[in-house]
Amino acid sequence: MQVVVLTALPVEYDAVARHLHGRVVRRDRVGTQFEVGSITGGSRVAVAELGPGNYAAALVTSHAIEMFHPKAILFVGIAGALHSDLQLGDVVVAPRVYSYQGGMAKGDDFLARPQSYNGDWALSQSARAAARAWRAAPLSFAVHHRPIAAGEVVLNSRTHPLAEQLRRNYNDAAAIEMESAGMAHAGQMHQTPTLTVRGISDRADGGKELVDAAGSQPAAADHAAEFAMAVITDYLAGVIGSPNQVAVAGDVRRQSSHREVAAHDPATHTGPSWRRESGPLDVAWRSAITRRRQSFESPALELHLVPIDPAPHIEVRRLAALAEELAAHLPARVPVETDVDDQGARAVSSDSTSGPHGLFVGRHGQRSAWEPLPKDSMGAVLDETWLLDHLAASIITLITLSPRSAARYAPALAVMPADMLTVGRLDRMPRSHGSGFLMRAKLEVPPEESVPADDLGDLASDVAAELAARLLMAFHRGNR
Questions:
Q1: Rounded distance between C-alpha atoms, residue 463 and residue 235, angstroms
Q2: Which of 46, 134, 174, 176 could share a disulfide with 36, CB 3.0–4.6 Å?
């Protein structure tokens, strides 16, 4: 996982989740739910909603680090303004977070003993780069780089003693909220970079109910989420150096596919360790796994991870629980049926109207996922961006399933049926005419090269980009 984004409220969660494509659900060891998806450019991001409070933020941050080993964690959401020059909807990026409630009460006085946490330098630099590009666009809000105060209180008064305490002891704090200190503390303990991005939803002046009713929270959350995506894109371009991360560093107005990227230094980029295998590998394709096919079934993209080294054998008594685990990873809107046999465990869509969805884990180690391709009345479409997002999501799903993985896997791809298949773009559908249709029963990329299981987890976007390129090459080769 590349970045984890934490939120406290539903409005914050929804604002972030709208930027993630091909979302799948992950649960940590205590049941916290994360949705994992790809942002524009292919980077993998997980988002969770944890409720208000620094204690919850610290706990979930620790669990997220243990589960995903992310390169960074961001808290993204809304906040109340403490400075009068901030406008509703403005975004505040915190170079420093104050945990303001620490201190000693002595007589009538409160002697502040603050704890502060600095935002990660590289993340802060990415935020400034993104803000420079932001200023060049005609936007209705500004981005500020100022400290934030985080406690356990919703402040809605300029005359309350807490407001005076903040003015006296933390007068450079531009906004107040309830989670970032917990996140920052946990990030510091685990040596994981953190940063807070907040949209201003009220002025902490007694008028919170009025501006909330006018829709200030969704607007502020949307601004914070949009800017956070720009920060993540710029940051990962520098940390990873991957060619499919960003078009131009800091360019938040024009993020593109990997065909339109800036140059990078190959010497600094550590990609997946592909290895060509010496002999043919056996793969169970979807038709063999399900042993069924509807007469007019929608074309499906299938991904199979074939183990190279011996994978831990799955005991028969574990299969039923594994099938239920697989079912939990399929889209909630899809009716699912589970099945186990001497091959392994599977969960597949039981309603043909939802298209062919399914997951499979074989007793000897193969892991498989399939889902319908986007289509219109003229047939199915191979859209490169869709392929990148959905292949990366499937890779993450398969490699993080509970059975222990093999050391290496050889990925295989197929589209079946492949008749009336073409390369296109979703934003140009539905189509009134088309050309370049493939007229074949099956499009196939065999498992000829393997990659370490760790690379599948850590570099899912890079692996997905390579697999998508191989599938498109197979299409063009078969269409000559």
A1: 20
A2: 46
Cβ atoms of residues 219 and 199 within 8 Å: yes
Tell me which residue has tokens 């939803």.
Answer: 201
Cis peptide before 417 (omega within 30 of 0): yes
Read off the amino acid at residue 49: E
Tell me the per-residue pLDDT of 326-347, one tens digit each, with 9 for 90 and over: 988 887 778 889 999 999 999 9
- Spatial distance between the Cα atoms of 141 and 200, rounded to a whole number of angstroms: 10
Domain ranges of the chain: 3-239, 277-479
Contact yes or no for 323/335 (Cβ under 8 A): no
Q: Could you tell me which residues come within 8 angstroms of residue 365 by beta carbon, excluding any fewer than 6 positions away?
A: 306, 307, 310, 311, 312, 406
Map residue 330 onto helix, strand or coil: coil
Residue 468, classed as helix, strand or coil, is: helix
Please report the pLDDT score of residue 478 as a whole number.
Answer: 66
CATH class of 3-239: alpha beta
The Cα–Cα gap between 298 and 354 comes to 9
Report the distance separating Cα 119 and Cα 96, nearest Å. 5
Q: In the block, which residue shows the tokens 């970032």?
A: 180
pLDDT in tens, 78-123: 998 888 888 999 999 999 998 876 555 556 666 566 677 899 999 9
Residue 360: predicted pLDDT = 96
H/E element, 149: strand 148-150
The number of beta carbons lying within 10 Å of the beta carbon of residue 437 is 16
3-state secondary structure at position 247:
coil
Terminal CA-to-CA distance of the chain, rounded, Å? 39
pTM: 0.57
Tokens, residue 428: 């140009």
Q: Are the C-beta atoms of 24 and 35 separated by less than 8 Å?
A: yes
Residue 261's SS3 state is: coil
